[in-house]
Amino acid sequence: RLPHYYQKNVYITQHTFPGPGVYGIVVQDPNRNDGVKNIPNSVNVIFSIKTTILINPSLGDNSTPVLLNPPIDRAALGQTFIHNPAAYDPDGDSISYELTVCTEADGKPIQDYTLPASSDTLYVDPVTGDLVWRTPVETGDYNIAMNVAEWRNGVKIGNIVRDMQVTVYDTDNMAPVQTEPGNVCIQAGDSLVVVVEATDIDGNFIQMQATGGPFAVEQNPATYVQDSEADEPGYSRATFVWHTDCSHVRDQYYTVVLKAEDDHEETPLVDIRNMNIKVLGPAPQTPALIPTGNAITLSWPADSCPSVQGYRVFRKIGPSGYEADSCTGGIPEFTGYELIAGLTDRFDTLFVDDNQGEGLPQGNEYCYVIVSVYPDGSLSFPSQEACSPLVEGNPAMLQVSVEDHSTLGTIRLSWAKPDGLDTIPANGPFEYRISRSPDLLGRQMALAGVLNTADLNDTVWLDEDVNTEQFPWSYRVELYNNEVGNRFLIGGAETASSLVPEGTGGDNLVSLVMRKNVPWINSQYTIYRQDPGKAGFDSIATTTSDRYIDNGLINGEEYCYRVTSRGWRLLQGELFENVNHSHTVCVTPVDSTPPCPPPLRGFSACDSGYNHLNWAYVHDSCYEDVVSYRLFYTPGLDQSPTLLTEIEGAYDTAYNHFPEGTLAGCYLVTAVDSFGNESLPSVHLCLDQCSNYVLPNVFSPNNDGVNDLYVPLRSAYVDRVNMQIFNRWGLVVFETEDPDINWDGKHKDTGLLVAPGVYYYICDVYEQRLSGLEINALTGFIYVYSGESNDVFIEAK
Questions:
Q1: Which residues pair with 768 in a beta bridge?
Q2: d(C-alpha 7, C-alpha 259), whole Å
Q3: Is 648 exposed, middle or buried, given 0-12, 13-18 or 19+ CB atoms closer than 10 A?
Q4: Three-state DSSP state, 724
């Protein structure tokens, strides 16, 4: 039993659904209260609420949201009224809110229903769920309904409706006022303590309560205790305490609804405040790094939270200095970190980063962070950054420069004189063995030359007669002690490649990316371009980035590029600087940039039998170069979209589709430009709004030519029905599978008219929906008025 003489009834039933699909569950109770001001003739209108659920194995198990705050609040004339249902989804799905129309029999919208009048506005906050009525202008009873929808991975998977009656009183009492608790983010394992104060200008005593997800969790539920020592006329205080743990981590916020109600003897009033709490997983421990010449091994202890299902590994060149925001899990894109691996076990805490088998390029400091992943996809705080360079080779490479561009060209190599040979029995003479590979990473090394030296001072070698029009080339220099009877490899060689400006043609532009695998840092690039019809290369830009876009070019013309890099390397405390010339690359600009993905929207015009689709861009720039759109359609959830139509013209962004059989279907649209580039597809828009089978509640089979047959008011998109009509003793007087029914009022066994009166029907309607043929069960009453002059069949009891 609830306050103010309200009573709560709980009904429990069990039902086995036949298979995947979209199902509606309707609960109805005759009738609504008399005198509801925004429902005409309310006492004769059935009360109903509806829950819609989507059963789809690919989405997993699902529990509908629970509305934890009872709808028992009162409103005062001229004062803002706020109600929040305190919706809590046990699965952690996202929840949205909107106003909807109160419903009657079979969950159908009430005819001529209107929202209550307000001095300013009546709305529902789509994120917090606050129903705000600012402010009531007339006393009386009003019915207001709000739709609470749940979403998973961007897919709407169900909704429930709160239908509440609000009584507006004319009173001098003023509602109490609470302090604003604010929104909070907390790390799992920490405790949250929030003190809320309430005051009442009229000096009434105040009762403070709270509802919401933190009170509904199985482990360590929150508490909200009113301080009896601070309870006095016009003032009260309560404390919210929640000792969080790993089981509370989830992607969505927990909403707590804080309610303060005064004890005014005639019209108690309520103040509502919301507190949203985000619980994030603690950061994994900082990974330990073990570098080699071309890879880094990461290891870290298993996360202490048992619910963790794996990890994400992120990498960046150079540290970011990012300090985690208290409300942000994972690692933001602006830090420059990129996801390089996803591990799917809490105890899988070893990862070797070898750049997917291609090896990490030398010359960089590699930094890593680890993020734990929870069952609903939520991410923990990131670990601290761990950074390391790769292990230096010996000899250390300093230069790979293209000096002559031809099929018999020249590449200049240089390296640092090896240091620290006094620790090994290397007495010389020495031999440098130079190997070459036709790729960046040195996968096909073959001996290209030998350089003998007595004192290691020969550190330059020219690779002549090499095809520098073929690229890239990578090199490795190995040092041997070449003493007779004492020949051995000294140190470990490293790989360095030539510089390749990889070019991609765009719309009146060329995009260059500096491809290289070198152990030094390139701090500057000078870009040279050879224009069509000219012989020489001219300097056009200098940049510190390894990417450059050359704009303002002519599509279809070929442009050639060379790049000179300037770099440095620190070896044993000594700074080495270098200059390297690249290979030549020639690129032709062409429009290869697709248009913006169209923002597809739509709705079903149920009575007219079509789906209206619209994809007008918000930004005018997206219309540039668009020449047509391609609209795709599928009538079912599990089917692949097929091309429905192609629409010419950039601004022709609407289409009415008249499908056969059912309006249920899914759509996507793409944009095509004048070069044939097709955009990414729009959102996958699914429409399944029309259930157009409506049955009347009266007819008169008296052969006067008016309303002589019982037929549905609307029967579109119905495959068949299973209709049974019963008399007051439960005997079947008529049955059919015809969607048009066409009952003439005669008994199925005698052929005579049934007696005037009220009959009950059960009608299973088989409709084509997104998930296939579904059953919509309708029940109701039919009043048969046959006229006094007709022969009638009087049914036996």
A1: 773
A2: 19
A3: exposed
A4: strand
Examine residue 522 and say whether the peptide bond preceding it is cis (omega within 30 degrees of 0). no
pLDDT higher than 70, residue 327: yes
Any idea what DSSP says for residue 58? G
The DSSP bridge partners found for residue 379 are 373
| Residue 558 CB neighbours (<10 A) | 15
Give the chain's mean pLDDT: 89
Tens digit of each residue's pLDDT (9 = 90 or more) over 357-407: 777 877 788 999 999 999 988 999 999 999 998 888 889 999 999 999 999
Q: For residues 778 and 695, what is the distance between their CA atoms, to the nearest angstrom?
A: 9
Residues ≥6 apart with Cβ < 8 Å to 473: 400, 411, 436, 437, 438, 463, 466, 497, 498
- The pLDDT value recorded for residue 424 is 62
Closest CA relative to residue 270, chosen from 416, 117, 83, 396:
83
**101 SS3 class:** coil
Cis bond before residue 542 (omega within 30° of 0): no
Residue 144 CA to residue 147 CA, distance in Å, equals 10
Element (H, E) at 729: none
Q: For the chain, how far is it from start to end, CA to CA, in angstroms?
A: 42
Phi, psi of 579 (to 5 degrees): -130, 130
SS3 track for 235-247:
EEEEEEEEECCHH
User: How, if at all, do strands 118-124 and 87-88 pair?
Assistant: unpaired
Q: What b/e readout covers 479-505, taking b as 16+ CB neighbours within 10 angstroms?
A: bbbbeeeeeeebbebbbbbbbbbebeb
790 pLDDT band (50/70/90 cuts)?
very low
| Torsion sign across C-alpha atoms 626, 685, 56, 768 | negative
Per the CB < 8 A criterion, the answer to whether 24 and 107 are in contact is: yes
Residues 6+ apart with CB under 8 A from 674: 591, 625, 627
Q: Determine contact, residues 602/614, Cβ cutoff 8 Å.
A: yes
Q: Calculate the CA 593 to chain-centre distance.
A: 25
Q: What is the pLDDT of residue 792?
A: 44
Please, where are the H alpha helices in 114-240?
A: 213-216
The candidate with the shortest Cα–Cα distance to 59, out of 153, 145, 196, 138, is 153
The span from the CA of 221 to the CA of 199, in Å, is: 27
Closest CA to 418 of 459, 378, 386, 446: 459
